Amino acid sequence: MTIRKIEEILVARPTSDGDGVRLKRVFGGGDLSRFDPFLMMDEFGSEQASDYIGGFPSHPHRGFETITYMLDGHMQHKDHMGNVGELNNGDVQWMTAGSGIIHSEMPQQKEGHMRGFQLWLNLAAKDKMQPASYEDIAAEQIPVFARQGAVIKAIAGQLGDIKGKVQKAVTEPLYLDIEITSEQYQESFAVPEGDTVLVYVYEGEVQVGDDVVGKARLARLGRKGQVRLKGLGAARLLLLTGKPIGEPIVSYGPFVMNTREEIEQALADYRDGRLTA
Ligand code: MN
């Protein structure tokens, strides 16, 4: 049995976005094709209100999906369609920007811990201009799978006995939040050959194949063989897999399209108030 090896380890880097929100960019630079179908992930987490209070005031997106996973705290999303979504501890918002959405993502707390992730997932060319939509998923709707020495929350996808809340065609993303409680945990995931595999460790450390991946590290694995995880003590990690779309990626700020011309069209549409028309 082949075990997937780590091809690259990235260190989450401090940055800021929105109205001065301090966060860590887990991945999202350089040659984006190596993460295909994923585009970017941010981790936000702070006890300091000044790090998050500015939030993300009204801004557009076109051409992809955003998945916001709140571990702790309270954020409110509002969009041009009149949707209002409250995200509290453990909740997920799955937003398909499609042809265009204008929304805000604002903290609803003035103090205390805020922590979570936002993942960007690309859409195939044929799906980029679909109408915008979104789904709020309450924490208690997310299926949980018990293992010896671990608990797995399955936000999306399907693999073996694991069936996540959200199933998506084309990119078929698997999004698991794995909380390891002891070194007894060991599991091999039969991820389809060719799929992209990313492991992000956000607490503790974990063994991935033959290597140890520490906190705030993203491991990008090879495309053949099983994904083997082994507990080394208490840890928390995200396991992300997906089918590469294999199309050109042209990313500019909040727009991700296939060509330069499509980006220029998105900018013009936003400027002229036609992004969400
Ligand atoms: Mn946004």
The major pleated sheet works out as: 7 strands, antiparallel
| Small molecules bound | manganese (II) ion
User: What is the assigned CATH homologous superfamily?
Assistant: Jelly Rolls
Helix content: under 10%
Give the percentage of residues in beta strands.
over 45%
Strand order of the largest sheet: 1-22-19-24-17-14-13
Low-confidence stretches: none
Structural class: mainly beta
| Overall strand count | 26
Rounded to an integer in angstroms, the radius of gyration calculated over CA atoms is: 18 Å
CATH domain fold name: Jelly Rolls
**Count of helical segments?**
1
Oligomer: single chain
The overall pLDDT average reads 95
Q: Which overall shape is indicated by the principal axes computed on the Cα atoms?
A: globular
Distance between the amino and carboxyl termini:
52 Å
State the CATH architecture: Sandwich
String of helices and strands: EEEEEEEEEEEEEEEEEEEEEEEEEEH
Can you tell me about this structure?
With 277 residues, this protein is mostly beta strands. The protein has a single domain, classed as Jelly Rolls (Sandwich). 4% of the residues lie in helices and 51% in strands. The termini are far apart.
